[in-house]
Each structure stands twice: as C-alpha cells, then as structure tokens.
Inverse folding.
C-alpha cells in the first residue's frame, strides 16, 4: 500500500461520527424543522379524567376562533374507520374517543389552526362534558374480582396470562432446596424522556393522492404497511420519512393518535399539518416503560449452588395492550431472567392487566423486558448472597455458566450464542479494587459509616430476530441493506433501520468499508425513507447491528463476489486466482497485478464482462440465525449520608462484552448514555398515579432526569467474546447498560444497609426511603 | 406605548434582523419560525431542558422563557453563528472530537451553554463544567463525553488566546 | 405550550411602571426575569391581560454597600450575586443561595426581586432574606415604603406588595465582625425545588456567644418561614452541640411541610432539623474564618 492510500476506517476504528457536522452547527433536520408552504398546526384537547363517559363535545366556539381551520373529534374519525386502530399486540386502541376516555391526558379532540399559537388558543374553547367513572390505576387491584372493567369490549382487565419454563421440575427443586430466597420488587413506571417529543408533519397531496408523513418513528416501514392496511390508502401512496430523531429509546416505535389525526386533518384541509407534542402532554400520554410487580424466588444449596428460579409478575399495560413486542411474546423476552447462571430449572408467569393509564410497557432501552428480567435475577442473587453470608461476587462466580458450555441452552429455552462471564467480572473487580473496598466497608461499619458495593453480572438477549420466532404483526424481524457503488467508486447504502442517535451513518459505513475497502468518507448511509430504503423492521431493542449491520456485511460480500468477476475480466485472470485484500483484488503471486474496488466500480459501468449485468449493487435481507447475547459485569460503589439518606455514587465500573466493536468511541458513548438512564431509573425517575388515576411526574419539572451534576463519572472497560453467528462477530450494545445497571445501584445501597437486615428497597432510591430505614434502626440524623 | 404586536430589531449572529411579532411570541419561536434558524430546539415547556439555549446580550438564556420583544435591540448568538468562514468554533470541534453528542437534539443548547461558561471561566474544573451545564439535559451521552468536549474546547481556546497574545 | 395574548408595556421609568400597574390593577403582571411568570403563562396557570416589563428601567441592577446596608437592586440577576466577590466574601449565605437557585441559565435571567416577590415558598432567596432580617423597598404611586422581610410573605404566592407596587430593592444591614452564614439546600436533583432548605446567619461575640441569630426555611409550608423560637433559643448562648441541636429541633417543629413528590412531610421535617444543624455549624465555621 502506498503512503497516499486513504484510511478506510473499517471495523474497530474510533473514528469521529459522519453525522456530527450538521448537528454541531444547528443543521440537523428534526420533524419540527420541516416547514411546508401553507402548513397548518394541530393541537390536542386532552382528558382531565382517567375514566369518564363523554356526554357532549361542543366545538363551535373553537371553530369560530379566527384562524382555526378544522376541529376533529372521534365522530369524525368513525366513518373513516379510524376512531380505533390496531395496536402492535393484536389489541386495538382509540385514536379519538367517541364514548369514553380511559386515561388522563388521553387525546379527545384535535384542533387545527393556521399556527401553533391560534391552535393553543382554540384548545380551551372546546367544551367537553364528562361523567366520571370509577377508576382502576393499580394492576394488582385491576386483576381482583369485582374491579372496574377498563375495557368492556374485552370483558375483564386480564390482558393475558403467559408462562414459560417447567413448572413441575422447578417446584420440586424448590421443595428439596436447602434454602430459598424470596423478594418482591416493584419496577416503577418510567418515561424514556427523549429530548425531542413525538410529532409529525402530514402532507396529503390531493392530486397525486399521496400521503407523506415526516414522523418521529423508529420503524418507518412497518408504520407504512400498517397505515396502508388500516386506511386502505395504497402502500405506494404512503411515504413515511423519519428525519433526524432526537432520541427514541423505544418510545418512538408506537403509533400515537396525534399522527393519525394530523394525517386526517391534512386530507380534510388539503394542507400540510404539523403536530408536535408539548412535553407536558407527551410525558403523561406516550408509551411508558416497566410498571410491574415481580416476586422472585431462588432455590439453592447451602454452599450457594443455585438450582432453580421462579418469578411471578403482574404487568401494567394501561388501557390498550399495545406493547411494541414481538407477537409471540406478550411480556417480551422476560424469560431471559435466568441470566448468567446455570439454573437447572426455572418457571416464570406473568399476568398482564388493563388499567386506566396510557398504554406502553416496552420502552426505555429495555430490549423487550430484558431490563425487568435482569433486575429480578441480579437482585435475587444478591438477596440470596446476603442470606447465605456469601460474598455476592463469589456467589455469582460459583454459578456462572461455564465458558465451555456455549452455545448454552438456558432453562427457559434460549440458546446463548457465546459468553465468558468470569473474566468480565474479574476485570471489574480488579479495576474497582473490590477486595480493598470490602475491607474499607468493614472498617467503616465499625465507625458507623455506611458504604455499599453492588454488582450486576447481566446477560442480555438482543438482535430480534430469527424469522422462525420473531415477528411484529406478522412481519418477520429481518432487516436490510441495499448498496450501490457509483462508477467513481463512491457508494450509497440504505438500510431498513433508523438511527435516533446511535450513529449508523458512521458505523454502517465502517462495516461496508471493512468489507469493501471503500473509505467511509466515500460511503453515504441513508435510513428512514420508505420510498427509497429497503424494507426493515427498524431500530429498537439493540437490533440494528445484529440485523441491519449484518445485512450491510452480507450485501457488501455480494458486491465483492460480483467485483471478483469484473476484476477477473479486467486482469484477464481466473476468478479463483484472485486474492482479496481490503480495497482490491490481485492475482495470486503477483501483487502488482491488481484492480482497486474503485477501478472495478468504474468498469462495472464501462467495461464489464459480457456474461455479467452492468452496475455494482446488492441488497440483502438478513434473517439472523439466532439472537445475540451481550453481557457484562458492573460494580457500583455508594456512600450513604446518614443524616439525609442521600446515596452518593462514588464509582461505577462497567465492563461490557458486546462482541466485536465496530466503533469503540460510539460503543463507549452508547454505554455511557445507557448507564445514565439506569442511574435515572435507580435514583430519580418515576411516574406515579393516585387512586383516581391522576398522574404525577407529567413534565420535566416533576419527572426528574439526571443532570451532569449527579451523573457519575462512568468508568468503562471491555472483554471481547465475538458472536459466532454474526458476520462481524458483533452483538449489539445500545441497551446493555440500561438493562444491567439498575440492579448494581440497588445492590450497592442494599449492601450498605444489609447489616441492618435490609434485603430490598424499591427504586427510585429516594433519600427518604433510606432515611426511614436508618430512623427505624435508631440512627440519629444530623 | 403598549401593543399586542410590536416591531423588533435584533442583531442575530452579527446580522441585523427585524420583524413584526406578537408580544406573546416566545423568543425561541421568533428564532425558529420568523428567522428560520432551526438549530435552536424546543425540548420541554417548563424551562427545564435547555435545548433552546442561546446567548442573548452575552449571557446564555433559555429562549423558551423569554418573549421575543425582550430581545429587541440586543445581540443574539445562536448555534448557527458560531462557525466562522467555514471554520468550526473550538466548542463545536470539541463535541465532534470527543463524541459529545448522539441524537444531537440537546447539542446546540449544550454548546451555547458551554460557550457562555467558557467566556466567564476559561479554565473550568470538571465540577464547574458539570455545574455550568446543569441547566441542559441530555438523555443520550451520560455527560462524561460532553464534559470532555468542553475540556477540549477550553484547552484549545486557551492555546488560541495565547497565540493571539504572543502576536 | 403557548402563553395567552396580552398587551405589553415596557416603561422607561419606575413612575410610568407604577402608574400602569395602578391603571390595570390585578389584570397586570410585572415582568422582571420572567423565569417564573413565563412558564406559568405557558402552562396557562397565569393569564395576565397586561404585562409591564421593568427591564427598560435603568438603575435597578446593582449590588453595593452603602449607608451600612448591602443593597441589591430588584432587577439584579441572580447570576450577578453569584459573581460578586463582595458577596462571596462578606455574605456567604447569599453566595450559597445564588449558586443553588434553579440552574445557571435561569439564574442569568432570573432576578432577585422576582425570586422574592413571586411569593413562592419553594423559592430559595426568601429564606435567606428572612435569616438576614432583610428589608424590601417598594414604590407605588403614593410613594416609597420599607417592608420587613418577616412581614412580607403573607401566603403562598401572596406578599405584602399591593398590585400597584414594585419591589425596587432588598437591603441587608451590613453584618458586624464575627458573622457568618450558610444556605443548605437538599434537592432530589440539582436545579429542582428544595426538598428542604435552611438559611442561617450568626454573629458571635468575643466570648463565643451568639449575639445575632437568623434562620430561614425554604419549602417549609405555605410561606417562607422564619422560625423565631429557634432563633431565640440560640441567641445569647454558646453554640455548642446541644444548643445547636435544640435550635434545630425548634426549627423543625416550626416547619409545616407537606407530603409531595419531593418527599413525605415526616422526612422533610426531619431534614429541617438536619439542615439547620449543618447550616449552623457551617455558619460558625465561617465566623471563625472558614469557608
């Protein structure tokens, strides 16, 4: 290679992101930045009640306000068949109500005006009369006999009952166990709190009959298909564009009523219509995460050998069962809850409940309920450790799945592709100085000072998924890449996914660069336009690298095969005599006889062999053979202020193994961000409801996400255990730390208080919860 | 003089701009919708997130919590005004170099807050940086790389200052 | 969230401002920093028909010592308190609070007058003003008057100011030698309203006896609170451990916090005790030259 050869920046390069120049100069293009001539603005009247019959809606005053173009109610949607639409889990959801509202802040009426100021003025002019109904806001109450039924059309509040595992075998292991540890956990209701709220611009062109929707969606293609099936608008007449998205974290997979109302408003008015959710409307009405009650039990021998795991869960799904889940998994991939441990048997069951709360459940970087699963197992392991008086690290080490057991079939039926758990934990322990910290803790306890060390050694399941098991509304969960190499050797690559900050424009270019030897600066990556991009299921649940990333590698390899034919033609050599090295083919034994990928690309349009089609393009729809199973070990060190009950994170060490890393800088960034979300979960965040279904934590004043001040200074490291089935050996990493970290925080705080007999504290770890424990133990505050 | 509508003049990124505005028009909407500068974002409605941060009269403020009329006669700097003659400002460079952004939505506000912070305190400690950007929420980065971005910029700006002084 | 329509005035003199306020009475609101008013208007919890913007009036932004007072102009931005060397050195309790009101961006706009006159029991400056026994100067069409801080806060969001009055200055008697103060704010998260906040200001004589004791509580009930019994209990005493704890007990007894998202009342009450102990100790350490 000559000195002038461009740097390709393939796999493993911590290259700066290609997308950043526009963002740092204020030239991103988010939905609210889309402005079309004559555009109108939609605002939404929302319900003050959690459950109420609508006795009348009077829109006359609102319509009479100068500048108001249309007012849309459920009655207007009914004849279009759009008052209700299907959810992602084969339930249905209201767009706008015709009879009753089922949660506070539910969308009731859409008001369309010439600008957002007039629309906002019209909202209070809409007169809606309600007759309040009894409310059920707690899923445990909802499942009791005689509870108010949220959905008369479904007859009861039980959305589903789901089980996995061998109940009998598990029970018998529990019967014979030396010791059983049991604990109840509530995983609070959270909101992802992307910095950009949801919104759209709908533009229906009456002449072409085409509806274009710029919208904040993580899954544009699936949205198009469903929109077409529901509205009967031909699928070629619907174009979904996901422009730059200001964070998604699962909350932007859902289809919200505002999108539908905006589209209808555009059809009715003949003008483009913009809807941007206000934060104080978004937080209480869009999809939540978690909100479930878990009872976890582990059966073990006296020596700490864990035998069986049992978890019973009640999940709150709100008024409509619409989790963004794979169809066959009503409670997501919760059955990964055996985690990193070699259990003989396990059994889980979940009751899903309807309540007078908004729908959701799968959001907040959770990998389809893997968060809850990991929290349950990583907490109960600690409970067991304290019960047995065994160091939590040692108990984990004793029960880790041994590296020679991979691929490993878990007690609940998953086949883990690869894993090597001990080195990750050992590394975290060494880096944080675990033994020293334990000594310090012992000394401090003698002085009456409180510190704790919490471990979480999680295993994730991501990359949904293999077509035999994974679909959403019947759409198999493949993903795709289409690459075109231009005559001058530059490329455009389009994917079925859609980044919301993950950096696909860089990492996907790196994958192609790795495979084809084209420098990343010569590769344009596009996503999020259903008119131009190949079909895919979108970006969520850490699936983009395992699916679309793999498709990028496979499409590149198809191109390389064609390039070989053209190179053979150009070099007058046999294909099998050509050797590939990044960026060129050369004739075996004569490295000087070579054609670069750029020369080959030019020839693909100017001088290709007679038996080969022109052009250099490929498309790949990648069906992963298995899920990927990233893992890691986290250690949190916490100091407790006895006077105030504040838990202050002293250190947080995260060792992640996500297989091969495409861009270490971006991987590190993903882990940092997810750790901060885990920190928010553990320490701050919660959406609460009172018994009347009134929501608390409905805006950024009351729902506190971490600032730079409290957020710990993350320390990260890695081990590398490649996925054996992914073409690049990568596994996906976006959610690892959100999934893995909450248990580490809680374990640390409980560890600090364990000598007082504390076995569990529910998140968020508010200082008053901790202070109450100290007070109850006679520890004076000062 | 009283009005529900007013004519205002604002020096925006060095250029005199003017427009007729309703008295209630928020500065952020003036910037985004009247001036067409969409780099300044709206992330909340309770003055918590800082996505709308701009520098007005030399101070970083939340443009969602001012009326446009309050900017009348003042100098306004938005993220679009930072790069000069195609050259990125050191803070912009810092965010790019150190991976101080992911989705990019909080980034302009974060950059403008950092800009004012470094004007006031060219050599901030990590703690001072963290406090200085505590009015700006980021949900993607976990802040560590934002802190590093600001540190990078501070260092670079100090070197530039020293070079200017040496000349 | 969009504020409702209003008519906007930006008078150039205080005289013009108060006559506008007199003309429009309860329908008018003063715009100073706007960091409380504008969010309330966006949420449509406030819908004033008239806004009187004070920011065109010259001479209301200052922090200076004169005539044995520290004088703070009502339009002084919180950030300017934070930046003042004099405040940092001589009025540490004010420096403390200035660094803990909302966030740096809000502090760049938010004013001292606004933080006080808004009458929000969760605002931080009022407690400090109570601890310092501050006085507020207000101007109205009928002239100027001085209101003691402890007589200023009537109820939640209700102060002694009449609709036609403008707060123009907060003033604090310059502390004698051997004085020190501190403000401690317990927050769920930085930038949030206080779970509990305690301001203390002490003057100790040559024998180590407390001559002057000022305490103010944030988020302790419907108004910012001056726990007088607590103050009295320490006055004339040596601030030893038991005296401090006794004072803190009385301060906590005086507090009447409510259970909300920022904690149960029982916890908050206990925190007034803890923060009072810590803030008194902190103030004492500053008396003896500590920071």
């Amino acid at each position: 290679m000559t000195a002038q050869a461009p740097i390709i920046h393939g796999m493993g390069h911590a290259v700066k992101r290609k997308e950043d120049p526009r963002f740092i100069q204020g030239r991103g293009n988010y939905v609210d930045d889309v402005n079309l001539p004559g555009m109108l603005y939609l605002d939404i009247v929302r319900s003050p009640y959690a459950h109420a019959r609508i006795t009348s809606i009077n829109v006359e005053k609102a319509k009479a306000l100068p500048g108001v173009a249309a007012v849309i109610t459920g009655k207007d949607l009914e004849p279009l068949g759009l008052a209700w639409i299907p959810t992602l889990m084969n339930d249905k959801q209201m767009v706008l109500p015709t009879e009753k509202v089922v949660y506070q802040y539910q969308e009731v009426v859409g008001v369309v005006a010439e600008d957002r100021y007039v629309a906002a003025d019209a909202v209070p002019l809409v007169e809606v009369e309600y007759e309040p109904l009894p409310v059920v806001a707690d899923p445990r109450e909802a499942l009791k006999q005689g509870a108010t039924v949220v959905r008369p059309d479904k007859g009861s509040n039980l959305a589903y009952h789901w089980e996995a595992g061998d109940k009998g075998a598990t029970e018998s292991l529990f019967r014979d166990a030396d010791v059983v540890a049991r604990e109840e956990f509530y995983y609070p209701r959270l909101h992802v709190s992307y910095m950009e709220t949801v919104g759209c611009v709908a533009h229906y062109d009456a002449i072409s009959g085409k509806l274009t929707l710029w919208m904040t969606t993580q899954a544009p293609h699936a949205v198009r298909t469903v929109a077409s099936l529901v509205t009967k608008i031909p699928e070629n007449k619907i174009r979904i564009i996901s422009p730059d998205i200001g964070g998604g974290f699962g909350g932007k997979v859902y289809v919200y009523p505002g999108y539908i109302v905006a589209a209808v408003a555009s059809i009715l008015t003949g003008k483009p219509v913009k809807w941007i959710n206000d934060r104080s409307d978004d937080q209480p009405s869009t999809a939540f995460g978690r909100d479930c009650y878990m009872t976890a039990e582990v059966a073990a021998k006296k020596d700490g050998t864990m035998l069986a795991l049992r978890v019973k869960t009640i999940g709150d799904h709100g008024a409509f069962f619409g989790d963004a889940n794979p169809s066959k998994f009503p409670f997501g991939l919760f059955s990964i809850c055996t985690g990193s441990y070699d259990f003989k048997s396990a059994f889980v069951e979940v009751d899903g409940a309807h309540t007078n709360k908004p729908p959701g459940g799968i959001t907040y970087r959770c990998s389809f309920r893997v968060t809850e699963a990991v929290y349950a197992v990583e907490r109960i392991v600690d409970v067991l450790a304290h019960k047995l008086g065994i160091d939590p690290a040692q108990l984990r080490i004793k029960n880790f799945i041994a590296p020679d057991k991979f691929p490993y079939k878990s007690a609940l039926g998953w086949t883990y592709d690869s894993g090597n758990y001990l080195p990750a934990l050992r590394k975290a322990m060494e880096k944080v100085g675990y033994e020293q910290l334990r000594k310090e803790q012992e000394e401090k306890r003698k002085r009456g000072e409180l510190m704790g060390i919490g471990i979480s050694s999680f295993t994730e399941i991501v990359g949904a998924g293999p077509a035999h098991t994974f679909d959403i509304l019947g759409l198999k969960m493949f993903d795709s890449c289409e690459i075109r190499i231009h005559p001058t050797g530059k490329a455009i690559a389009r994917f079925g996914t859609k980044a919301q900050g993950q950096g696909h424009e860089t990492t996907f270019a790196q994958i192609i660069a790795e495979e084809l030897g084209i420098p990343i600066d010569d590769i344009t990556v596009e996503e999020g336009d259903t008119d131009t991009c190949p079909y895919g299921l979108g970006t969520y649940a850490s699936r983009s690298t395992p699916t679309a990333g793999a498709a990028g590698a496979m499409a590149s390899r198809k191109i390389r095969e064609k390039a070989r034919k053209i190179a053979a033609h150009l070099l007058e050599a046999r294909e099998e005599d050509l050797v590939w090295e990044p960026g060129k083919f050369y004739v075996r034994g004569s490295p000087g006889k070579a054609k670069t990928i750029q020369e080959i690309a030019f020839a693909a349009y100017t001088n290709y062999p007679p038996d080969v089609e022109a052009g250099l393009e490929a498309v790949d729809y990648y069906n992963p053979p298995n899920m990927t199973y990233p893992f890691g070990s986290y250690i949190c060190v916490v100091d407790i202020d006895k006077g105030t009950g504040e838990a202050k994170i002293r250190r947080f060490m995260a060792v992640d193994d996500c297989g091969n890393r495409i861009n270490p800088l971006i991987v590190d960034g993903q882990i940092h961000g997810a750790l901060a979300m885990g920190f928010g979960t553990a320490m701050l965040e919660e959406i609460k409801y009172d018994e009347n279904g009134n929501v608390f934590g409905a805006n950024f004043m009351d729902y506190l996400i971490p600032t730079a001040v409290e957020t710990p200074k993350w320390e990260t490291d890695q081990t590398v255990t490649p996925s054996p089935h992914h073409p690049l050996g990568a596994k996906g990493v976006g959610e690892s730390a959100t999934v893995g970290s909450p248990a580490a925080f809680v374990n640390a705080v409980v560890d600090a208080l364990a000598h007082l007999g504390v076995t569990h504290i529910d998140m968020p770890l508010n200082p008053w919860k901790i202070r109450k424990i100290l007070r109850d133990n006679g520890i004076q505050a000062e | 003089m009283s009005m529900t509508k007013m004519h205002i003049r604002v020096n925006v990124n060095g250029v005199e701009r003017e427009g007729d505005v309703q008295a209630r028009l928020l500065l952020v909407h003036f910037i985004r919708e009247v001036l067409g500068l969409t780099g300044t974002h709206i992330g909340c409605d309770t003055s918590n997130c800082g996505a709308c941060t701009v520098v007005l009269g030399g101070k970083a403020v939340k443009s969602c919590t001012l009326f446009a009329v309050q900017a009348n006669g003042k100098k306004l700097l938005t993220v679009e005004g930072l790069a000069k003659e195609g050259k990125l400002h050191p803070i912009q460079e810092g965010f790019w170099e150190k991976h101080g952004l992911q989705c990019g939505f909080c980034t302009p506000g974060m950059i403008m807050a950092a800009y004012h912070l470094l004007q006031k305190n060219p050599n901030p400690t990590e703690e001072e940086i963290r406090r200085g950007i505590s009015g700006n929420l980021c949900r993607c980065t976990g802040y560590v790389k934002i802190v590093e971005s600001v540190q990078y910029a501070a260092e670079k700006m100090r070197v530039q200052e020293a070079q200017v002084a040496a000349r | 969230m969009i504020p409702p329509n209003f008519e906007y005035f930006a008078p150039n003199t205080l005289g013009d401002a108060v006559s506008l306020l007199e003309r429009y009475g309860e329908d008018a609101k003063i715009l100073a920093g706007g960091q409380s008013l504008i969010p309330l208007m966006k949420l449509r919890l406030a819908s004033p028909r008239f806004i009187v913007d004070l920011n065109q009036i010259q001479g209301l932004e200052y922090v200076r010592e004169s005539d044995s007072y520290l004088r703070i102009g009502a339009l002084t931005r919180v950030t300017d308190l934070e930046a003042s060397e004099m405040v940092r050195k001589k009025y540490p309790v004010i420096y403390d609070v200035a660094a803990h009101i909302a966030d740096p961006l809000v502090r760049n706009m938010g004013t001292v007058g606004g933080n006080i006159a808004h009458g929000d029991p969760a605002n931080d400056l009022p407690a400090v003003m109570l601890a310092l026994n501050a006085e507020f100067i207000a101007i109205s069409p009928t002239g100027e008057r001085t209101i003691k801080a402890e007589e200023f806060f009537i109820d939640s969001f209700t102060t002694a100011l009449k609709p036609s009055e403008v707060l123009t200055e907060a003033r604090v008697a310059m502390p004698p030698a051997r004085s020190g103060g501190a403000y401690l704010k317990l927050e769920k998260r930085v930038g949030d309203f206080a779970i509990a906040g305690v301001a203390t200001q002490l003057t100790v004589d040559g024998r180590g006896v407390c001559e002057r004791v000022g305490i103010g509580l944030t988020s302790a009930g419907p108004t910012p609170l001056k726990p007088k019994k607590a103050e009295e209990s320490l006055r004339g005493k040596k601030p030893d451990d038991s005296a401090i704890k006794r004072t803190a007990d009385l301060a906590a007894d005086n507090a009447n916090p409510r259970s909300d998202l920022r904690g149960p009342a029982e916890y908050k009450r206990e925190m007034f005790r803890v923060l009072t102990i810590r803030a008194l100790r902190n103030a004492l350490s500053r008396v003896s030259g500590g920071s």
Remarks:
- Chain B touches chain C through 35 residues (CB under 8 Å).
